[in-house]
Amino acid sequence: MDLITEGIKALLKSDKDIERLLSCRFEEVISLLDRYKNEIELFNSVYGLTGANNTKDLIIRHILDSLAPLGILSRLLGETENSVIADAGSGAGFPGIPLAIAMPNCDFTLIERMGSRAAFLCSVKAMLKIPNITVEEGELEKTQKKSFNMVTFRAFKPMEPKLLKTLIRILKKGGIIAAYKGRLEKTEYEMAPFKDFGYNWETITYSVPFLEEERHILVIKTN
């Protein structure tokens, strides 16, 4: 059994909402993720897409890590139909492309300032025929305001006041920031300057198959 298949099966067992979203499309999801993995490996040396040293790292630390909090993100969105989600600083498409594959009823905008990486994202969208992805080349600050129900990012930037202000600007009323983070101690240190800003935030733990490291989603809900 290959690592992507084994990892997705582990996620199905770990969360009822992941099972609900993926079990009926299991073979399709595996096929799309495998082809996506192949494209990254083909172009990684040209575009510098990820720091993964080998296929195992790429699958576990990037693809499975992107999908591991899928149930959490689904519950945060709740009953919002046709949610519009931004992936800020998308890079190689993490977590946006795996999430778009897993959540076909949501629309994803992959925001990437580097032209070469944006071109790669457009190529993957076309090759995999993923209709619910839009690639936006440019700075996050220039993204249209109040456009998204949720904005997520992974390995983008540490949270700081200027970034938080930019993220809130592009969210619709009641929108959610869901940032992929590692150790809880480091995340709490990162958020310490915001204690007097009046924003409600929390961290939610998630586990990545085959990875013995702390992972958290930092959630900030806006008014």
Short structural summary:
This protein is of the alpha/beta class and 223 residues long. The chain is built from nine helices and seven strands, in the order H-H-H-H-H-E-H-E-H-E-E-H-E-H-E-E.
- The neighbouring-strand order within the major sheet is 3-2-1-4-5-7-6
CATH class membership = Alpha Beta
Sheet with most strands? 7 strands, mixed
Q: From the helix content, strand content and strand pairing, which structural class follows?
A: alpha/beta
Number of helices: 9
Spell out the CATH superfamily. Answer: Vaccinia Virus protein VP39
What is the string of SSEs from the N terminus onward? Answer: HHHHHEHEHEEHEHEE
- The termini sit apart by 46 Å
Helix content: 40-55%
Beta-strand proportion: 15-25%
- Give the domain tally: 1
Chart the SSEs and their pairings.
Blueprint: H1 3-14, H2 16-22, H3 26-47, H4 55-67, H5 70-77, E1 84-88, H6 96-102, E2 107-112, H7 115-128, E3 133-137, E4 148-154, H8 161-169, E5 171-181, H9 184-191, E6 200-205, E7 216-221
Parallel strand pairs: 1-2, 1-4, 2-3, 4-5
Antiparallel strand pairs: 5-7, 6-7
